[in-house]
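Design job #97: recover the sequence.
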């Protein structure tokens, strides 16, 4: 079951610095630089946080934030994708 899963996800240094910058607003998220094991519940919380900041973050960071969000979603498979849905549309 997804609730019992824990997966290792790697966050590169530049991406971590970009999403935790003060102008993005993700500096209080539960993400860690480098390899870290995340539970299903932590990943869902992180994905929800990415969805909230996507609509207000600087335009030049949106692609990277969307990619990082999808990294968490796809790591847990299609069930997670069904639960989290698609990221918000940004124009």
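Job complete. Output follows.
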């Amino acid at each position: 079951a997804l609730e019992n899963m824990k997966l290792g996800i790697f966050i590169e240094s530049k991406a971590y610095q970009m999403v935790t910058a003060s102008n993005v607003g993700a500096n209080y998220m539960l993400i860690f630089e480098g390899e870290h094991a995340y539970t299903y519940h932590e990943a869902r919380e992180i994905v929800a946080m990415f969805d909230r900041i996507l609509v207000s973050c600087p335009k030049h960071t949106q692609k990277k934030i969307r990619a990082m969000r999808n990294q968490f979603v796809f790591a847990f498979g299609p069930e997670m994708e069904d639960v989290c849905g698609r990221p918000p549309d940004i124009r």
